[in-house]
Write a structure and sequence with these properties.
One of its GO terms (biological process) is putrescine biosynthetic process from arginine, via agmatine. The protein is an alpha/beta fold. It has helices spanning 56-63, 78-81, 97-111, 128-139, 167-174, 194-202, 210-216, 218-229, 261-269, 293-319; strands spanning 36-41, 84-89, 117-122, 142-147, 177-187, 205-209, 234-239, 276-282. An 8-stranded parallel sheet has the order 2-1-3-8-7-4-5-6, with helices on both faces. Bound molecules: 4-carbamimidamidobutanoic acid and zinc ion (2 copies).
């Protein structure tokens, strides 16, 4: 008699990994090919303050159940024009940040091997570094749009180089981001000193503060960012704490005076036509959430990112002609 199949081994796969279906999409193993995959990274061993973002991916998936297939703001049905699937969670070692970073980089490389575009649900912001490494392996140094209350270009915390406050400094040092096209959007709040800003500028970042978004408005901000990026391969990293705590209380390092979820979504919608190659939504920590406010915001942000990627995928497919067209090799 074959032995019964037991529960998942919690010593190999952390018990906070698993469970299916962003936007009730099929799992990756249920489709022959995916143009876009959504994957979770339940990792928060890089945080400086409140922990809990390891539970972010499934919270966002839970909150994504109400998403509908047509996106009127972009006039697109993303799941009709591209095969989108949920790849589940990348199971990472919560006790070894270096190993976790390597695991994430390898998984991202594997998931994008055939030109598939990846939207990652975090997890804390540490995960942006291996995701950028994987993106740069494929595309060379990438343009970066970083939505966040924080700069995340600090050097170390308690001597640690790999944390959620340091990924973009490491990315600069590694030469994997294009210093001609780096922008933070939504920054605000107290810093450790003026030097934080001086160093950040030296790395090549431009800053659109939360107050700039308020004063200039979303259309002007999106237009300026579009100009700076041009047709470069673009990675978009969204720390949910870019939103005001009123719009995203469920996060680890909240700062007052943030942008609204409407402003964030409207800025993103201004990026149609950009060469977006990947994106993440990080720092959702459900223990501090109420009524799924943060989960719903993150789910909608991820949905608009998927919509933008789907539009880009369809554009590229139609430029290649009908034989390579979206849907040509798909079982539905
Ligand atoms: N990436 C996020 N969410 N926060 C970074 C905050 C780093 C600090 O505690 O100074
Ligand atoms: Zn942040
Ligand atoms: Zn961050």
């Amino acid at each position: 008699m074959t032995p019964p199949i037991g529960p998942i081994d919690s010593a190999r796969t952390p018990r906070f990994a698993g469970r299916d279906g962003f936007a009730r999409l099929p799992r990756l193993d249920q489709v022959e090919h995916a143009d876009i995959v959504v994957a979770g990274v339940p990792f928060d061993s890089g945080v400086s303050y409140r922990p809990g973002a390891r539970f972010g991916p499934n919270h966002i998936r839970d909150a994504s159940r109400l998403l509908r297939p047509y996106n009127p703001a972009l006039d697109v049905s993303p799941f009709d024009i591209a095969q989108v699937a949920d790849a589940g969670d990348i199971a990472v070692n919560p006790f070894n940040i270096g190993e976790a970073i390597d695991t994430i980089q390898q998984a991202a490389t594997d998931l994008t091997a055939n030109g598939t575009r990846l939207v990652t649900l975090g997890g804390d912001h540490t995960i942006a570094l291996p995701l950028l490494r994987a993106a740069a392996e494929r595309h060379g140094p990438v343009a970066l749009l970083h939505f966040d209350a924080h700069l995340d270009t600090w050097d170390t915390y308690f001597g640690a180089e790999y944390t959620h406050g340091t990924p973009f400094r490491r990315a600069f040092e590694e030469g994997i981001i294009d210093t001609e096209a780096l922008s933070h959007v939504g920054t605000r709040g107290p810093l450790y000193g003026k030097r934080d800003l001086e160093e950040d500028r030296r790395f090549g970042f431009g800053i659109v503060t939360s107050a700039d978004v308020y004063r200039q408005g979303v259309d002007e901000v999106a237009a300026k960012l579009r100009d700076r990026i041009g047709d470069r391969p673009l990675y978009i990293s969204i720390d949910i704490d870019v939103l005001d705590p009123a719009h995203a209380p469920g996060t680890g390092t909240p700062e007052a005076g943030g942008i609204t979820s409407r402003e964030l979504l409207e800025i993103l919608r201004g990026f149609v036509g950009l060469n977006i190659i990947g994106a993440d939504v990080v720092e959702v920590a459900p223990a501090y959430d109420h009524a799924e406010i943060t989960g719903v915001a993150a789910a909608h942000v991820a949905y608009d990112l998927v919509s933008l990627l789907a539009l880009r995928t369809a554009d590229e497919a139609s430029a290649q002609g009908p034989a390579a067209g979206v849907g040509a090799d798909r079982v539905r």
